[in-house]
Design a protein that fits this description.
The complex is a heteropentamer, with 2 copies of chain A, 2 copies of chain B and 1 copy of chain C.
Chain A: E1 3-11, E2 14-22, E3 26-31, H1 37-45, E4 52-57, E5 60-64, E6 69-70, E7 78-81, H2 93-102, H3 112-119, H4 134-147, E8 152-156, H5 164-180, E9 185-189, H6 192-198, E10 201-206, E11 209-215, H7 216-221, H8 225-229, E12 235-245, E13 250-255, E14 258-263, E15 272-278, E16 282-285, E17 296-307, E18 312-319, E19 322-329, H9 330-336, E20 343-348, E21 358-360
Parallel strand pairs in A: 3-9, 3-10, 7-8, 8-9
Antiparallel strand pairs in A: 1-2, 1-4, 4-5, 5-6, 10-11, 12-13, 12-15, 13-14, 15-21, 16-20, 17-18, 17-20, 18-19
Helix pairs in contact in A: 2-4, 3-4
Chain B: H1 7-40, H2 46-58, H3 61-72, H4 77-86, H5 94-118, H6 122-130, H7 135-164, H8 167-173, H9 183-191, H10 197-227
Chain C: E1 7-12, H1 16-30, E2 34-39, H2 41-49, E3 56-58, H3 62-70, E4 74-83, E5 85-90, E6 108-111, H4 117-128, H5 132-135, E7 139-142, H6 145-153, E8 159-163, H7 164-169, E9 173-178, E10 187-194, H8 201-208, H9 211-219
Parallel strand pairs in C: 1-2, 1-3, 6-7, 6-8
Antiparallel strand pairs in C: 3-10, 4-10, 5-8, 5-9
Helix pairs in contact in C: 1-9, 2-3
The chains are: A alpha+beta, B mainly alpha, C alpha/beta.
The structure holds adenosine-5'-triphosphate (ATP) (2 copies) and magnesium ion (2 copies).
Chain lengths: 361, 228, 229, 228, 361
């Protein structure tokens, strides 16, 4: 399933002019507050009718200003988790969820019981929305949208109000939806960690326009992107394969550049996945270091160096056939005499690969 | 009790109740439709439509009744049409009293429903749309339930108004005992003769009890609905 | 017989007590029924003009009967009742002095002098007695004559100008004086058998003119106009 | 134009306008207070209070007028008190017409304001409280402005009702040309005589134009206020 | 200024029973969705009247069920940034801000212009709230609360809807408020990074009760806390002093265990501050490693080791007079033969000390 979008719309003091293609999987819409993310998502849902343009989901045209097509919202079969949950105040949580399934398409999807367990909302079923806390509200809203078994799911910062452990509970389910049901998603988020884990494609909006777009791996290991994403969150995403699970709780994965030891993943041996390695979690060493607590040491070659405004340098390395990024100080770069072509060792702490950052491939 | 009110008076009470209930029920769907159109749509002549609905509030009731008589009387164009097409005759019938009461109560009903409608957040309706509900279904499952307190208030207001309506009714359908003599018409007749005050007051008390009871019930109902 | 439909009389509201009694008498004597719809003469006349299902119309003044007559809606017509115009005061007010009619100080309650019959007669009479200029600014005009009566009864107005029939039925007022008969147009309640009247209503039409009915009217203070020729 | 209506009629138009405007303005603060009490407070006898406010809607206008006369007439307790204490006399005065119009329009006004009040989110009021605004200030700066569309609607509804009020007014203050002869009284008078319909209709048209104008203005005003 | 709170309150299906003292500075309220954070904050603001208990700000009693005291909300002079912004819909952004200052106490505070610059809302002043995006709304809400110059500020997840760069813009201002105006704050957050940077005290709520409470340094370097906070976010906060700013963009700080090189901070030389070192950013080395891009290598001694459920081990180290945490794999711990008392070297990447994690001391 492929969403292609090309819209123009102007509001007083703000102009939207956005084109992108979102292939199967999850497309992350990323951008600062006020960049136009919600507006784009609303256009897909049909809640905002752009001045001009075209939006299509595979062969089904949702909107086309030239052909004068604008499919009504309720016929689009597009689920929407709103930034402001919008639960129905006159219905219990249970009725809100049931409402979601009322006009659901005949498609496989999670049951009410499954969703309750997953979102930890079973104890809230009899309550009315005004008796829920902020996070509870959002969880129910996610549940309601999933109950409608949509062709595509729009999520507008759905996890912003959730704590880390609830986030971690929900993310796998979104992944499963993406993979098993092939429900494509447009996912608005401020969190690179979420984006890196979930997204197949990243679209970066800046001031109503697409600043960058591309597959998540390329985007996150692109030196140009470091600026957009913020230095703290920059890092590469590598395809990997689970080789073995070890008795001491580590899983061994192979990447093109060698072996990585990570905290045990739930994936079966042989499964493919991807791991995210933050630039700042990589230490470079001239020689193979010894007596270190870090388990993962991969040989690599410097391919590019880019100095920022500060004291840092982003170093792009070829590691096998993939690229990884390392963020080091200029002082270290000079001390080690790093230049493109230089051979180094990338030291990566096993534990620095976030479980959240090991998604399915 | 039968001694306290004569049979004619009991008949008037029963008729008034019937007229008010039927007028309220019949005008409810129209009231909702009109309120919806006014609250949510833009169309040419909207303000004219709005004005027309409010006309009975502004006109002296006698004038409204007279206009009804001219239009729906046996000689009136609408009256003739209804008679010919459906065999329905309104003038000097209790059905005419229903029409008069409904028309007089309509602006109050529409006002109340419209105000309630304007407070229903359209964001909730668009949320329902994304879940696959069509316009009609959204209306029935989201808008209408959220509207309910206002709807109840509007209906009861209309009922109370219909119970008390006099000027338009007596002018349109006269004051025929057993057919068109409503409670207020009976009160009027009593007030026209010396010494009729006591009988009039008895009727007024009944009317007040009924209307107040309805009002109170609506308050509690609306609260129950809203508290959910 | 029970098969006969009730005669439907549209009558001026001020006739209610008397006419209801006549109706009962009629039922007692003949076993037939009469149903009266009471409202203002103007309302009833307009309804009849628009085709109301009435058999007999009793108006409080001749104008409305004339207008129906002119329109050809009246088959047979008679001057059913007459009345007198009186000045009233509260029951505790000063007692009548005899001599020429005077009206005390304070507000004078009367029906609207331009439109309601009792008011029209009243102004006519006051004018002919030379009292109108004095009264005009103190006149409190009501929408019907009963309201004027009520104002005097509860003491909101010192005196009032009403029909004799009204004054007689209200214990809280007393008649202070009666206008001379020639000071105003004769007060006539015309009755009309309407063109659309059903045949069974003829019996009641006859009964209205019977001695028994007239007795009832007289008891309520009405006059029975002499039938010409 | 002066030929079209006689000087008496023009007087009646002017008086009706004055009565309706004054009645609306005077009852507005009371209407807001009553609506506030009903929407926001719980107190013993609340339903009784609510019923009392709605009484004029339910009672035949003539009865309301009669009760006013009994209470505020020259012999009535309230009338005597006002006369003695303030030298204010209401019966047979245009001020009495104001009272009658205000009382008849009051339930409509309170209803509208109350419905609007119930839609003002108390969360915004508590936000204002955390910013240091006291209850009175919250009311003036948050509640009242958010209430404005409903307030305007309520006021105009009351104005229209006051323009058209007849039964209670004529019963309470009679029909004294230049003092208490309102537009509806004049209409009534014209309707009492055969052939008076044309003159009555001229007055009705004026009344409708005024009320409709007010209604239209209120719609636009309320919309301007709400769109902000 | 000290907030002392001891309240009990029951809702259908939920009971609140919370006691804590919040000394000057920022107290973070931390806990899962539905733990009762908003309820506690509401009680302090006066929006929820607890069934029983006492709340006092220094000597001023806000609430005391025994003495029958319950100061009205508007007399408490407590600012509140709501989870749902609650801007006045009938006022422009400018009027909303002005409203905040209308009954402001006579206390120093930021001006409208300063706030506009800080929160990047100057271009929104003429708009009405419904024309703002989610993040814009929240920024204005923060501005409005600050305009009222409160004795204490309550913040209910104020930054959840903001992107990283806006967050980073606002945080310093909250710090400045805390330090310069001594405005104490009760800060509800899901983000340990925010908490670590801002908070003086941490209160952890669990299911309506206080699970843990204490100064932020102790809490974050406490091994017991690792579980509550989540392994990814565990780490120590060390007091530090700025020693020098170097030409290559690095700042040199002294901590009790030695010197740290960080990206340049805005602090003056000689200023005291604190730095947060995440457990997972620390690598242990048996000997002083050479040829590494990591600049910061501090001698340390293992004081405690705690194994988790997974393959990881949290290692508490004495470093000077402070404690730091390191998260390593069990495999490494065994390979290095780590036991309490063992001397090691802690390798910390200069850049792994987040700028956000360098707060004022
Ligand atoms: N009715 C309107 N009039 C003028 N500007 C508007 C209107 N509605 C939205 N905007 C502006 O459009 C821009 C995009 O809004 P949008 O809600 O799409 O942003 P966003 O990327 O979702 O931001 P956030 O992350 O804060 O939710 C914002 O700058 C907003 O101020
Ligand atoms: N009226 C109510 N009736 C019953 N339970 C309620 C009511 N209001 C709140 N609760 C419950 O009280 C608990 C605490 O709510 P609170 O809003 O304080 O949580 P929170 O910690 O702020 O959560 P979040 O992080 O999701 O905003 C929740 O479990 C909530 O469901
Ligand atoms: Mg948004
Ligand atoms: Mg909360």
């Amino acid at each position: 399933m492929n969403l292609s979008l090309d819209i123009r719309h102007s509001l007083p003091g703000f102009a939207l002019d956005v084109q992108f293609d979102a292939p199967s999987g999850i497309t992350a819409l990323f951008g600062k507050s006020g960049a136009g993310k919600t507006s784009v998502v609303n256009a897909v849902a049909g809640l905002l009718t752009p001045d001009a343009g075209r939006i299509a989901l595979d062969n089904s045209v949702l909107f086309d200003s030239r052909q004068n097509i604008a499919l009504p919202v309720h016929k689009r079969q597009i689920g929407y988790v709103f930034q402001d949950a919008r639960l129905f105040p006159h219905m219990t949580v249970e009725a809100n969820l049931a409402y979601g399934s009322r006009w659901a398409a005949d498609r496989p999807g999670p049951t009410l019981a499954e969703l309750c367990g997953l979102l930890d909302i079973a104890h809230l079923l009899a309550r009315y929305p005004r008796d829920l806390s902020g996070g509870e509200t959002q969880r129910v809203a996610i549940g309601r949208a999933l109950m409608s078994r949509p062709r595509m799911l729009l999520l507008d910062e759905p996890l912003a109000a959730l704590d880390a452990s609830r986030k971690a509970d929900i993310l796998p389910h979104l992944e499963r939806l993406r993979d098993e049901l092939a429900v494509p998603m447009l996912y608005v988020s401020h969190s690179v960690a979420e984006v890196a884990r979930l997204a197949t494609t990243v679209v970066i909006l800046e001031n109503g326009r697409v600043a960058q777009t591309g597959p998540v791996g390329d985007m996150l290991s692109d030196l140009q992107m470091v600026r957009q994403i913020g230095v703290r969150e920059a890092g590469a995403v590598l395809p990997a394969r689970v080789v073995a699970h070890h008795a001491d709780g580590l899983s061994e994965l192979s990447v093109s550049g060698g072996r990585l030891f990570l905290p045990r993943t739930a994936l079966a041996e042989g499964a493919t996945t991807r791991v995210r390695i933050l630039a700042q979690d990589v230490i470079l060493a001239s020689d193979v270091p010894r007596g270190l607590s870090a388990l993962n040491i991969l040989p690599a070659q410097v391919t590019d160096l880019r100095a920022g405004d500060g004291p840092g340098v982003i170093c792009q390395l070829r590691c096998g056939t993939d690229h990884i990024l390392a963020r080091i100080t200029r002082r270290s770069a000079e001390a080690m005499g790093l230049t493109p072509g230089h051979d180094v060792h990338a030291v990566i702490k096993a534990v620095s690969v976030d479980p959240v950052d090991v998604g399915r491939g | 009790m039968t001694a306290w009110l004569g049979p004619d008076e009991w008949q008037a009470v029963a008729l008034s109740l019937r007229v008010a209930v039927v007028a309220t029920l019949i005008s409810l769907p129209f009231g909702v439709a009109a309120a919806y159109a006014l609250a949510r749509w833009e169309f040419p002549g909207k303000q004219l439509f709005n004005g027309l609905i409010h006309l009975p509030l502004v006109l002296p009731p006698v004038v409204t009744g007279y206009l009804l008589l001219l239009a729906f009387g046996p000689q009136g164009p609408a009256g003739r049409f209804l008679e010919a097409a459906f065999g329905v005759s309104l003038a000097f019938r209790w059905t005419g009293a229903v029409l008069a009461a409904a028309i007089m109560a309509f602006p109050l009903m529409v006002r109340a429903i419209r105000l309630a409608l304007e407070t229903v957040d359209p964001k909730l309706e668009s949320a329902a749309a994304t879940l696959g509900a069509g316009p009609r279904q959204i209306f029935l499952t989201v808008t209408l339930p959220l509207l309910l307190p206002g709807l109840i208030a509007g209906a009861i207001l209309a009922f109370a108004k219909a119970m008390g309506e006099f000027g338009a009714t007596i002018t349109f359908v006269s004051n025929i005992p057993g057919e068109t003599q409503t409670l207020p018409s009976a009160v009027y007749a009593f007030l026209q003769v010396p010494g009729g005050e006591a009988a009039a007051m008895r009727l007024v008390i009944i009317s007040v009890i009924v209307s107040m009871g309805a009002l109170l019930a609506s308050e509690m109902l609306a609260r129950r609905v809203a508290r959910k | 017989s029970g098969a006969m439909a009730d005669t439907r009389v549209f009558a001026a509201a001020s006739l209610k007590t008397a006419l209801d009694e006549v109706g009962q008498l009629y039922r007692l004597e003949t076993g037939n029924g009469m149903v009266a719809a009471y409202a203002g003469s103007s309302v009833l006349a307009r309804q009849i003009a628009q085709g109301a299902p009435a058999d007999i119309f009793v108006s409080a003044n001749t104008d409305w009967m004339d207008s129906l007559d002119t329109a050809g809606q009246v088959r047979e017509r008679m001057d059913l009742l007459g009345n007198r115009l009186v000045v009233i005061t509260g029951a505790s007010g000063s007692t009548p002095t005899g001599g020429p009619l005077t009206i005390g100080t304070g507000r004078v309650a009367m029906a609207m002098v331009a439109s309601v019959p009792a008011g029209i007669y009243g102004r006519e009479a006051l004018t002919s007695l030379g009292l109108w200029d004095d009264i005009e600014d103190r006149a409190v005009q009501t929408d019907n004559v009963r309201a004027a009566l009520r104002l005097v009864a509860i003491g909101a107005a010192k005196s009032g100008i009403v029909y004799q029939t009204d004054a007689m039925a209200e214990p809280r007022v007393q008649i202070f004086g009666t206008f001379p008969e020639d000071s105003h147009t004769p007060i006539i309640y015309p009755a009309g058998l309407l063109t659309g009247a059903r045949s069974e209503s003829h019996a009641f039409w006859q009964f209205l003119q019977s001695e028994a009915a007239q007795e009832v009217f007289r008891a309520h203070g009405f006059l029975i106009p002499e039938v010409p020729e």
